[in-house]
Amino acid sequence: VYKRQLRDTSFKCQTSLPEDIIVVPVLKMAYAVYPSVESARKVLYYLDGKLEIGGVALSLDYYPLARTKTARNDVNLVQDWFCDKCVYKNFARRMKCYKCENVRNPQCKPAVSYTH
Question: CA-based angle 20:17:73, to the nearest 5?
Answer without folding.
Answer: 50
